[in-house]
Amino acid sequence: MSPAARPLPAPPSRASTAPARPGAGADPAPARPVAPDPEPEAALSRRDRKKERTRREIYEAAMRLFAERGFAAVTIADICEAADVGRGTFFLHFPSKAALLYEFNQRVAEEFRASLVEPRGPARDELCALVERISVELVSQAEIMTAMVAEFFSSPETLAAASKEGQALSELVTEIIQRGQERGEFARRIDARLAAASFLATAAAIVSGQVFAPDEVAPEEVSRQFLQITFSGLDPSGDRGAGA
């Protein structure tokens, strides 16, 4: 909400414009302090928007090149040229080529959050919908994402940076699981962060080709098995009989 407009001071009367006689009248009122200039904050906001725009442009340029040439054939130099940025700018946003997965996760999480409306349905349904959304994105660019995820998990520097970057999808899954626990849909004796980490690690293993060979199992069946594992582990009946 913008601050209320400050009323303009009344114009001085003619008498007030004449020089004051010595000793006449009270001392003039002290000058009103000047409000701080909001420009630095606005400038910071513009810088943030520009940074986000550059990040997206790098990602989009990279994905176009991956689609044309394949993930392995594209270099960081190629991406920088296509995005019209320097190498320093690229590494400011992404520690490696595989770290472009951060932006993929961010986009999926943002789009899925935007699709949630109140009153929200069961958390189980939301997890199913999220898996479907991710599956659609992955199937549409399967070769690219398989190579990107495989390189992501083989790069120590990318994995080290993952604890600070690319957490949007993890935070979304954790939030959905916590909501399910609060509603009694999911086991409460499992830390939601651990459940989310297991969920995403299993998904990554599938996507990177560590579980099934290409075209070995239909995507729909993969999703079914994945969700069965997820919901079996989160079944609230597991809380009963657990040790104190």
Write the SSE topology.
Layout: H1 14-17, H2 39-69, H3 76-83, H4 87-93, H5 101-115, H6 123-140, H7 142-154, H8 156-161, H9 168-182, H10 192-207, H11 219-234
Helix pairs in contact: 2-3, 6-7, 6-9, 6-11, 9-10, 10-11
Write up what this structure looks like.
This protein is an all-alpha fold and 244 residues long. The protein folds into two domains: 46-93, Arc Repressor Mutant, subunit A; 97-236, Tetracycline Repressor, domain 2. Helices cover 61% and strands 0% of the residues. It starts with 13 loop residues before the first helix and ends in a 10-residue tail after the last helix.
Nutshell version of this structure?
By secondary structure, the protein is an all-alpha fold.
Defining key terms:
244 residues; 11 helices; mainly alpha; Tetracycline Repressor, domain 2; Arc Repressor Mutant, subunit A; disordered N terminus
Provide the helix percentage.
Answer: 55-70%
- Our estimate of the beta-strand percent is under 5%
User: What is the chains' assembly state?
Assistant: single chain
CATH H-level homologous superfamily name of the largest domain: Tetracycline Repressor, domain 2
Q: Please state the overall shape, judged from the principal axes of the Cα atoms.
A: globular
Structural class based on helices, strands and sheet pairing: mainly alpha
Mean pLDDT over the residues: 82
Sheet with the most strands? none
Question: What is the annotated CATH architecture of the largest domain?
Answer: Orthogonal Bundle
The structural domain count equals 2
Run of helices and strands: HHHHHHHHHHH
- CATH-assigned fold name of the largest domain: Tetracycline Repressor, domain 2
CATH class of the largest domain: Mainly Alpha
SS summary, helix count = 11
Instruction: Catalogue the unreliable spans.
Output: 1-43
The rounded distance between the terminal residues' Cα atoms is: 49 Å
**β-strand number:** 0
Instruction: Calculate Rg over CA atoms.
Output: 28 Å
